[in-house]
Design brief:
The protein has 280 residues and is mainly α. It has one domain. The chain is 54% helix and 6% strand. The chain contains nine helices and six strands, in the order αααββββββαααααα. The strands form three sheets. It has a two-stranded antiparallel sheet with strand order 1-2. The longest helix is centred in the C-terminal third of the chain and has 32 residues. The radius of gyration is 22 Å and the shape is elongated. 30% of the residues are buried. Bound molecules: zinc ion (2 copies). One zinc ion binds next to loops.
């Protein structure tokens, strides 16, 4: 891989680099935790059910990591596009990139690029979410939400038994493990376990909230900026709005991150909603 390509993949800011390393490390710590601590407790002797859990766990990890990596490496900036020298209606001139920027593109100062249909800058990707990696971002959030819910079901009995059953103290140790450790609710040995279980509970809540919020935005044909400012002109109906994010083969994208699903929009020109459609 040439140096310029590599530089475009690696996040520019130190905080973004740390956030990406944290997420990937935490994914591997979590799979280690489930494989070598939780599963041997639940299944002291190997059974078919245990192997099914192992396969499902690796499938979730593969999809999470695959979508995360593609969300990072897929370029959604205007960098590779041939842009007109004349400023068309609805376009803006970007004084940093020194080029005309298409509608819905916004310059990100953290990425140092104009991003097509910019959703937001995600520190955990170290990149902006835009038209070309929106699908991978959504699938990453989906698999993180499902994975953390699954991990919570796996951990529940073991963590409860370890921490002494259901009580206010157990709740404290699971939701705020550092506080639980400081107040002597959990011993140092079980700190790691309560920390990991607590992370799964908080992650599950956080990722499902994030998923619902972004599904709502896609349903309405908006990105976060447009939602904040009440811009509804790109809402072409929920079916088209979902196609614009997940592509023509939207029904397959959840299976594997590498499944091709061409987008109906090139990121440069956008259809606007029919003027006759009244705002709800
Ligand atoms: Zn720019
Ligand atoms: Zn950015």
């Amino acid at each position: 891989m040439d140096k310029r390509k590599w530089q475009s993949i690696v996040p520019r800011r130190k905080t973004d680099q740390l956030a990406v390393v944290f997420v990937i490390t935490e994914l591997f710590v979590e799979i280690y935790f489930e494989l070598f601590i939780i599963l041997p407790e639940l299944y002291p002797t190997p059974t078919v059910a245990m192997y099914l859990h192992v396969c499902l766990g690796f499938y979730l990890l593969f999809n999470t990591l695959g979508n995360l990596i593609l969300a990072i490496v897929v370029d959604t900036s205007t960098g590779t596009e041939i842009l007109p020298a004349v400023l068309h209606p609805g376009w803006q001139y970007c004084y940093t990139c020194m080029q005309n920027s298409p509608p819905r593109a916004v310059h990100c100062f953290m990425c140092g690029k104009c991003v097509m249909k910019r959703e937001h800058h995600c520190v955990f990707l170290g990149k902006c979410v835009g038209i070309r990696n929106h699908r991978y971002y959504m699938m990453t959030v989906f698999y993180l939400a499902v994975g953390s819910l699954y991990a919570n079901f796996m951990n529940m009995d073991y963590a409860w038994n370890l921490l002494g059953g259901f009580s206010l103290k157990t709740g404290l140790a699971m939701i705020a493990p550092i506080l639980g450790w400081m107040f002597g609710v959990t011993e140092s040995i079980s700190f790691f376990i309560s920390f990991q279980c607590g992370t799964c509970i908080l992650s599950c809540f956080m990722f499902f909230t994030l998923l619902i919020f972004h599904v709502m935005l896609i349903y309405r044909g908006q990105v976060t900026y447009e939602w904040r400012h009440g811009i509804k002109e790109y809402d072409l109906g929920w079916k088209h709005n979902f196609l614009e994010v997940f592509g023509a083969r939207w029904y397959l994208v959840w299976l594997f991150p590498t499944i091709s699903s061409p987008l109906p929009c090139d990121g440069i020109t956008y259809k606007k909603r029919n003027e006759n459609i009244k705002d709800i």
